[in-house]
Amino acid sequence: MEKxxxxxxxxxxxxxxxxxxxxxxxxEKPEISELADVLVMNDASLDSTNWITKRRNHAVxxxxxxxxxxxxxxxxxxxxxxxxxxxxxxxxxDGQHDVCNIPAIYKALTTPDxxxxxxxxxxxxxxxxxxxxxxxxxxxxxxxxxxxxxxxRGTGKDFTDPTTGLQGLNWKTFLFYSxxxxxxxxxxDANMLMQMSLLGFHIREIPAVMHPRVTGVSMHSGLxxxxxxxxxxxxxxxxxxxxxxxxxxxxxxxxxxxx
Length: 259
Fold this sequence. Notes:
Number of helices: 9
Strand content: 5-15%
Number of domains: 1
Radius of gyration: 18 Å
Order of helices and strands: EHHEHEHEHEHEHHEH
CATH topology: Spore Coat Polysaccharide Biosynthesis Protein SpsA, Chain A
Structural class: alpha/beta
CATH superfamily: Spore Coat Polysaccharide Biosynthesis Protein SpsA, Chain A
CATH architecture: Alpha-Beta Complex
Largest sheet: 7 strands, mixed
Oligomer: single chain
Distance between the termini: 26 Å
């Protein structure tokens, strides 16, 4: 009987037929396939994303309607809970996240720091020493600086890449995310770092290897970063008020041993 794998790689995908074949080929190499299973969250793609994934014998969940990136992630967390995985690593389907990051994230998730604490969340950062160079637009640079400032003021912690989609989560984190009203399925970004930091979850950043997008259009292209920055600012403020002042989530069960 094949030994059950500890790690599930969750890949939200929407019309990614041009990039997902190459990504899955990389994930099928022994150094990755022996460590992790793959789940593609197909968000009602109009192209062949669904069929490509199925032909390669990977798990795929297809939405009937387009629900968005965050909803795909949360349903993936529910799948991971149901299948009893210990860790989740989430990455994009567009080829920007190099698969070499997966073993590094897994190692970070399972390695205690000098105080003996293992992280609940590991972030793959584009902007740490050791990260590959990653070009970003002026609009995105402004957004990154602003989110770093808000997170530092709200949590007292520094994050170099507050909007990275390359993340590793332990079971306590993705079980928490899978529950109703614990995860922002519309804008799961810097606001989630604010929430989880204030709730006492341990977050660690590591340098990551990432590549510029070679096809398609980013969901944060053009003037969209400014609109996104405006919305995220209010979301970050709302999270801070909810967790720091109202303490609405303090009583929730994070040990979850009974689940």
